[in-house]
Amino acid sequence: MLIVEEAERPVPGSGQVLIRAEAIGVNFVDVRFRRGGEGIFRRPLPGRPTGDVVGVVAEVGSGVDPALVGQRVAALAEDAYAEFAVAEASWLAAIPPGLGAGDAVMVPMAGPVALRVLRQADFRPGETVLVHSAAGGIGHLVVQLAKRLGAGLVIGAASRGKLDFVRSAGADLAVDYGLADWPERVREVVPGGVDVVLDAVGGQVLRQGLELLAPFGRAVIYGAASGTVDDIPAGPLFALRTVGGFNQTAWREVAPERARAEMDEVAELFAVGGLRTVGHVEFPLEEAAGAHKVMEEREHVGRVLLRP
């Protein structure tokens, strides 16, 4: 359960800033953390949810340029569901003028992840891309980026009620992966298999996607909404396919300059209209439990926001 409590205004430490929040993007992984999940979803409870915070810098810690005070920024925060959030100054995303909160919360993490998983898959113009969870906060950005970067065909897999949204994001074909025979629909269109699979679901959907890979096809796993990625079949690997994983936190650690550049690249894409997002629903901060309920029921498309 989520409990709202009064707390002292946090103080930024060395290398940190304090952000007065305008909006907070809710991440599905925190729904799993809150439920006391196992494996990759296990986090000690009680805990505090993370989130993508957009707002104005109210205060800076030691070693941080005071000129940041008053600037509108976005950042991933470890304690995000609050009126004020502390974030690392080195990973602040400058928000272009006029960009709405729904787009701004995508700049620090969701947008860069969408861009990087395509690059991690060594995507090339003209190739066929299959996107699982294509109506999700990251998935619908992957669909747009794949089209923008020259995909020959983009296939978005999602639940039945979200297929129109997937098509509106730019998918050439939208399939209901709740149907047992959904892979057959894909094979009808691309009988030789797809070149790239991008997966944030895991479980049976991931296994079916791997079976759809063409020879020399590549899959990148960047999430596990189903709860598991432990049972990846070996068959596709022996059929000249490649399967890899991606984590944005690890990417920042091993390639900080490239990760920083991609964040700026995504901000520019949003600024010029090359990317867009949908805030499915907004909740007051004190109704964060309602936001988690919407995400648990998997009825949302795009992003869920909290407003302080």
UniProtKB/TrEMBL annotation:
Enoyl reductase (ER) domain mapped to chain residues: 1-306
SUPFAM superfamilies per UniProt: GroES-like, NAD(P)-binding Rossmann-fold domains
InterPro entries with a match to the protein in the record: ADH-like_C, ADH-like_N, ER, GroES-like_sf, NAD(P)-bd_dom_sf, Quin_OxRdtase/zeta-crystal_CS, Zn-ADH-like_protein
Protein name: Oxidoreductase
Pfam family, one: ADH_zinc_N
